[in-house]
Amino acid sequence: MPKVQMTTLGYIETRESYLMLHRVKKEQDVNEGKWIGIGGKFEYGESPEECMIREAKEETGLAVTSMKFRGILTFICDKQDPEYICLYTIDGFSGQLKECDEGELLWVPKDEIFGLNLWEGDRIFFRSASEGCSLFLSETLLRRRSASGSCFKWRKRACENSESVI
After folding, report:
1. 8 A C-beta contact, residue 26 and residue 102
2. Model pLDDT for residues 82-109, shown as the tens digit of each residue
3. How far apart are CA 110 and CA 18, in angstroms?
């Protein structure tokens, strides 16, 4: 029986920009060359919120003061264990940005986000967020990778409203 992974994914934002992580430093990285948010795997006993706050501090040096739960991504792939990703936007933070050992951090203007090398799921989230979607739910089924690298097959997607977590 496959083991289920629980992870977080967060997008730190200002009114004009998102803090994006360009994955160029890790070896054998499935995200190599992609621009992604921050986040990672839960540690034993952590809540989703605690995991997101810890990962933000570890990867960026910033302390989260306000974030919103934006949804759950269900990621099922024939190449890895199923993954449930708790998705957040972080709109309050303090501290100094530090160097990240997983890639390069860069503030990217929101109107330039679609020019980046993003995963298709991130494109769908950013498009939904720009359309006012506050709660993003999706179920992704991945089969074999095609030659182009595109393997997303969206089974469900929904948008609703949500409240601030902290």
Report:
1. yes
2. 888 999 999 999 999 999 999 999 999 9
3. 6
* 102 φ/ψ sector (left φ>0, alpha ψ -120 to 50, else beta): alpha
Q: Where do the DSSP E strands lie in 37-134?
A: 63-77, 80-94, 104-109
Cα 144 → chain centroid = 22
Q: What is the pLDDT of residue 135?
A: 74
Pull the structure tokens for residue 15.
Answer: 């009114």
Give the separation between CA 3 and CA 19, rounded to whole angstroms: 31
Q: Do the beta carbons of residue 131 and residue 160 sit within 8 Å?
A: no
- The residue behind tokens 């839960």 is 42
Contacts of 107 (CB under 8 A, 6+ apart): 14, 17, 18, 19, 20
Both tokens of 133, joined, read 């979607």
3-state class of 110 per DSSP? helix
Residue 37 and residue 9 in contact, taking contact as beta carbons nearer than 8 Å: yes
Q: Which two tokens stand for residue 113?
A: 């986000």
Higher pLDDT, residue 159 or 84: 84
The predicted structure's pLDDT at residue 32: 87
Q: What is the mean pLDDT of the chain?
A: 84
Q: pTM for this one?
A: 0.83
Unique residue bearing structure tokens 């501290």: 95
